[in-house]
Amino acid sequence: MFGKKIFIALAVIVCLAMSAPQAKAKQDILFGGASIVGVYYQVALQLSNIMNKYEGDKYNFIGRPTGGSVFNINALERGAFDFGVAQSDRNWQAYNGSADWDGKPVESLRSLFSMHPETVMLVARKDAGINKVEDIKGKRVNIGNPGSGQRGNATDVLRIYGIDPDKDFRAEGLQHHEAARALVDRNIDAFFYTIGNPSAAIEEPATSVDINMVHLNSPGIQEMVEERPYYIMTRIPGGMYRGVNEDIETYAVTATVVTNENVSDEVAYDFVKTIFENLDEVRASHAAFRNLNVEEMLQGLSAPLHPGAEKYYKEQGWM
Ligand code: GLU
């Protein structure tokens, strides 16, 4: 008798469960940033937050720390991520099959929009006596992990200054959070980094040790910048970081949000629409995003636009 009641109760529960409207499964969207202390990770986290706030019934955006630009472009090609942040120079090289992608162009790479400018920087511990690029000879300097964007910039700078990373100094391949720590702990004398300003990635070591920054503006650098459309000469204003009071002359790239042709038009459309409709929130979410504007966000894209993004930009009359 008792067993029969349980059976009926269970049957009722099963029927109710089957007739209840099923919540539509949300689509997980993986968004690759870079080192946890950098600005890219903030791009991935903040844009994910905005998507989950406004489109949370449809998507579950997840911002992930990664190895950086090169890692992200390769992960998008493999389908391991849906969106990622990458430097404009790396996008150009990937899509056109040069540098890390020599002879293996990433034809499936697609652009969405540009974010903040990133400066190429050589940051040294003040007591290391590195006042110009040549002073790194005989020193221990981080040039960046192989998946990072900065490693290619460091390699270009070294080539232009005629410095051999295999012979002239001890080159390290650390991710940036390790490099910042290593500078403070005196395990390295300087690091290269290509990053938006202001960034905790520089602010934090600068509060623990005295630092200086080196100008990267030789005629060779200026020539390279002139030749390539994705570089511009710029300066880091004095006072941006503790102990660096003069303007630092250097060059810059643009951080861009990229995807893959296999990501659906609907996902790309929903993403760019929501981000541009809430651009004030994006600007307020990190100091490096303060000056974002639509016009510049649609420039500097070297891979073709994803059709889902293009559809939204055309609807807005932006192209
Ligand atoms: N530009 C760096 C890279 O491409 C990342 C900088 C950041 O984390 O903000 O790897």
What do these coordinates show?
By secondary structure, the protein is an alpha/beta fold. The chain has 2 domains: 28-116 and 254-315, Periplasmic binding protein-like II (D-Maltodextrin-Binding Protein, domain 2, 3-Layer(aba) Sandwich), CATH 3.40.190; 118-253, Periplasmic binding protein-like II (D-Maltodextrin-Binding Protein, domain 2). It has 12 helices and 10 strands. Strand 5, helix 5 and strand 6 form a beta-alpha-beta unit. The relative contact order is 0.17. The model has no long low-confidence stretch (mean pLDDT 94). Glutamic acid binds at residues 34-35, 38-40, 68-69, 87, 118, 148-150, 194-196.
The proportion of residues forming helix, as a percent range, comes to: 25-40%
List bound small molecules: glutamic acid
Q: What is the 3D form? A: globular
State the CATH class of the largest domain: Alpha Beta
CATH fold node name of the largest domain:
D-Maltodextrin-Binding Protein, domain 2
Number of helices: 12
Radius of gyration: 23 Å
Distance between the termini: 74 Å
On the 0-100 scale, what is the average pLDDT? 94
Q: Characterize the quaternary organization of these chains.
A: single chain
Taking the sheet with the most strands, its summary is:
10 strands, mixed
Give the total of beta strands.
Answer: 10
CATH architecture of the largest domain: 3-Layer(aba) Sandwich
CATH superfamily of the largest domain: Periplasmic binding protein-like II
SSE order: HEHEHEHEEHEHEHEHEEHHHH
Unreliable parts: none
